[in-house]
Here is the input.
Amino acid sequence: MQPKVSIIMGSVSDLKVMEKAAKVLDEFEIPFEMNALSAHRTPDEVERFARGAHSRGIRVIIAAAGMAAHLPGVVAAMTPVPVIGVPINASLDGVDALLAIVQMPPGIPVATVGIDGAHNAALLAVQMLSVGDDLLYQRFETFKKNLKLKIVDANKQLSEVKFKFKVN
Amino acid sequence: MQPKVSIIMGSVSDLKVMEKAAKVLDEFEIPFEMNALSAHRTPDEVERFARGAHSRGIRVIIAAAGMAAHLPGVVAAMTPVPVIGVPINASLDGVDALLAIVQMPPGIPVATVGIDGAHNAALLAVQMLSVGDDLLYQRFETFKKNLKLKIVDANKQLSEVKFKFKVN
Amino acid sequence: MQPKVSIIMGSVSDLKVMEKAAKVLDEFEIPFEMNALSAHRTPDEVERFARGAHSRGIRVIIAAAGMAAHLPGVVAAMTPVPVIGVPINASLDGVDALLAIVQMPPGIPVATVGIDGAHNAALLAVQMLSVGDDLLYQRFETFKKNLKLKIVDANKQLSEVKFKFKVN
Amino acid sequence: MQPKVSIIMGSVSDLKVMEKAAKVLDEFEIPFEMNALSAHRTPDEVERFARGAHSRGIRVIIAAAGMAAHLPGVVAAMTPVPVIGVPINASLDGVDALLAIVQMPPGIPVATVGIDGAHNAALLAVQMLSVGDDLLYQRFETFKKNLKLKIVDANKQLSEVKFKFKVN
Amino acid sequence: MQPKVSIIMGSVSDLKVMEKAAKVLDEFEIPFEMNALSAHRTPDEVERFARGAHSRGIRVIIAAAGMAAHLPGVVAAMTPVPVIGVPINASLDGVDALLAIVQMPPGIPVATVGIDGAHNAALLAVQMLSVGDDLLYQRFETFKKNLKLKIVDANKQLSEVKFKFKVN
Amino acid sequence: MQPKVSIIMGSVSDLKVMEKAAKVLDEFEIPFEMNALSAHRTPDEVERFARGAHSRGIRVIIAAAGMAAHLPGVVAAMTPVPVIGVPINASLDGVDALLAIVQMPPGIPVATVGIDGAHNAALLAVQMLSVGDDLLYQRFETFKKNLKLKIVDANKQLSEVKFKFKVN
Amino acid sequence: MQPKVSIIMGSVSDLKVMEKAAKVLDEFEIPFEMNALSAHRTPDEVERFARGAHSRGIRVIIAAAGMAAHLPGVVAAMTPVPVIGVPINASLDGVDALLAIVQMPPGIPVATVGIDGAHNAALLAVQMLSVGDDLLYQRFETFKKNLKLKIVDANKQLSEVKFKFKVN
Amino acid sequence: MQPKVSIIMGSVSDLKVMEKAAKVLDEFEIPFEMNALSAHRTPDEVERFARGAHSRGIRVIIAAAGMAAHLPGVVAAMTPVPVIGVPINASLDGVDALLAIVQMPPGIPVATVGIDGAHNAALLAVQMLSVGDDLLYQRFETFKKNLKLKIVDANKQLSEVKFKFKVN
Here is the structure.
């Protein structure tokens, strides 16, 4: 089984955020890999990874980083494979990571999701893969329809809250 | 009993903030309803809710949302009923929600209150209802007069604080 | 003709923003007044204004202020009439005014609109008045339907933009 | 010719930013369409657009919006087609739009690019399309290689700058 | 004993910050009073307080407030007695209170200290009082000389920290 | 004539802001001096200035600085004379200067006014001097009463603005 | 043994951050000293320290400070020895300290590292010392090569995380 | 003549800021080079540059970048030569670039100067070079002494400003 999505992160401490991405990919039965890579500590590995990603079958890269978060942009510079950036809240509520990921110069986009947004990063990866995969598109369509179930549950709970002048 | 105010929120986790709004409406004996709705997860329900609100007797809508808080603005786009927006602090101290609610484009105002300001949202709803209801206006007037009691209590407590050169 | 809405502002320099509110009220044929008042320079006048507003027929107050914008909150403290706050961009892109208006303590809400949002403030005033006025509600409903015309115009202009691979 | 990418924006004033996206798509010979749509002024049109996008052949949506920028998120809520969000600097240096686009709740990702980042949005669209299109992937690869030419030019200009102790 | 300094605050919850101010005044043997006052809940009391402060012997007012912190500015508008503003961190790390206190319009200054800076507020009050009181000036001068003792203590502690290559 | 107030600034470019302070002192007939001093370029002069200020008759110091604005705090550290800090907008809208002036550690207050708030700084200096000078206090009281004239003027101008439904 | 690097800080409470700097210097066997100094509480000591640093053999100064962090800039003003500034998070997530350290006016640079970045400050000191010391340069080169070990460890841990569709 | 300092920047548009650095190095007669390099457009060139810098005689690197400014950190990751980072104001007042440069993770410091601080970056380079060069140290010491001349000039200009109550 060859991985189609690669999740990379700078530190094991990012795992508690990024495992949400892994769960989503598992649910959609999309083969993936997880690696620790650092734009600053292992620039050579980053380059080798980025240069070889496409030929190894990787079609989407999810890159998580905190603080002066360079990993997503550096990888995006080295491969035509689309890169999804996840700003990790490691300082300043994650604002430094968000700006360091999203404000890329013309020519090298990074598809940025919200701070600690690993769950959404994986869904976006699924959406990208479904551009050329109608079956996956249909499965994602079904997933979206099920999103409302969370709201149905919420309404059940709200209906049990009692106030004198609450009507429903 | 037909509800006059509708409190909507995206998630049950917002309830711990929004129940302060319910308490205020209860205190003013204004019939209300509470529903979970999500601009993103249940767009159809949101539309049905917004389109039908006025004919069901709803005169003010209180909409709470966090992060990229779209619910208040989306509902305001679909009904002439005034919408009060409550930014929920779910990330970035609530600054993202505040900006996503208050900075509406010309044509679609949302009456925004402070971050996690559910209590004030309900009072504002009472004020809006009292525009066409003199009796309610008088009750709100009385409520305002009683606000000073909290300060009277505070002064009692401060008077018990002892310092050598404190005179009162 | 007795005014129903009162537009107050701290300085004539705010007029270039606030005249957008006046235009909206004119369009809806709602009698209004405009006054300069300052929470800091004329506290007595502010109090006289706020205490007497309701008995003079004022049902909604629109208060604009910049910097450490106290006017909306101070007026809201002195009258049960609902107050709409307009943060004026006089420094710091208007962020100081926004926070000084929206972050009111429990008990005294100010219905805040966006920075320099005079147009929306007046629309919100119309919505508040329409809570007890079905005819006005219907006119506001019609106004909302017409909002889409701006988009129709925009699409006409966009249709004239030519690119080789642009289809529509 | 059926469009594959749809560029939507809330106002004609966004065109001066978004035409950079059109130029990129033209350069890559990808058929596209441009439409004005507003989450707030034309919610019905937005829904019709979003629901029908995929069956009309749209594979990527680029949505631009300023201020409390709801359009990208609202469209993303209504279609499984991936949505790229472009925060437009219409106020607060674009920070309000950035947060209102990127901070989406779990379940509905928006692939956010930098403020006024229309050029990068289109490149990201090309990358997404190339996930299932090897030929396009190769053309994008070539495009990336040419990015360095801008730097070669820059170095020529720098080499002409003369300082006494400047060596190159 | 007539108070010379008046410490006012909007809520008893501010006391845990403001008692640092009381301690400083006690140490300098300056008679003071402490009162709860709210620009929003007790505007009449605020006015009575401000108008009468000077004739009751008050020469400096220390006003603490959080969120949309209006109390210092409102009091400053009503009395020529100098007002020291203390922004209380009640939300947004105190940034809202800081801006709402310091960004006063021309004509009504508030002498603002740091967020939760009650200790410094009292020292500033002592400095203001010492403008017309040479004896107090000398005592403040002595106080300043003693500030270095804290650093002497710190150095003792640092000298006990052992590292192999630490020389002192 | 011995100066009572000293206005110091880091650069002649600050003069266009700080001359507003000079005008206020002139109006109140308070002898003052103006000097350029830099915490970074002339630390020795700063120390000499600060150490000798009181014995030369200086009772209040107004210190203006931009960017990493150290001058007010450094002077405050070296003299018991109260220091009023004016954050100059030289970068980042003046936010850097505001924080670098107002956020002083316990022991060394700086009485901070708003960004570019030279006018208010001088008024605050007058208020501080009036703590021990009843005549000056009365003149400041008169000044405050005249503040409302600006509002009277504003109202005249507003009364000339004509709208169909404007009543006053 | 004469110290080459001097670590200064305003308070013992900064030690828990700054001891990371000491550990790095120890590891590189660079003699150093640690002292408490305050730009505000001990300006004389600061001057004596700064003026004498070079002649005592100090070649790099690491200065830590929080809030309105003046120490690094004030020391940099008084000595040609390069100063590394460490913003300490004592309020506002350290943003106030960062701006007060990094935004120095032309003429007096402070080499600023990240918030609470004591570890990096010491590494930067090593790099500065190695400018004139080839042996130290080689040791730093070796240190950099070892940085990747942390990533190797991280990858080992990641390889143990099991998901159904995780390939590596 | 072999360059000792290398100034790198991502775009010719940065030259108008960075030529201030060149002027300083020229004044100190330090041989330098200027090159355009982009972490994103020419990652290979960046690597070649960084790996070879030391052996070509480069002892300090000055790297300027705007937006999601990765260049300084990426170069610092690839060479033990100290890197000075200059955040360029290309968007968001330069805050994005500042955070993307200064907030480096442990192990890879970048010596950050203020936004657009090219002048200070070059001075810092001179200071670093003078760590192992006593002659240069003395020249920098002289330079620092001359900084006060700017203040002397400023005072001359201030002495010509006339106010009735201005004493000096």
The interface with chain E takes residues 54, 59-60, 80-82, 84, 98, 102-104, 106-115, 117, 119-121, 123-124, 127-133, 137, 140-141, 144, 147, 150 of chain F (CB under 8 Å). Helices of chain F lie at 15-27, 43-52, 71-78, 95-102, 118-129, 134-146, 148-159. The two ends of chain F are 52 Å apart (CA to CA).
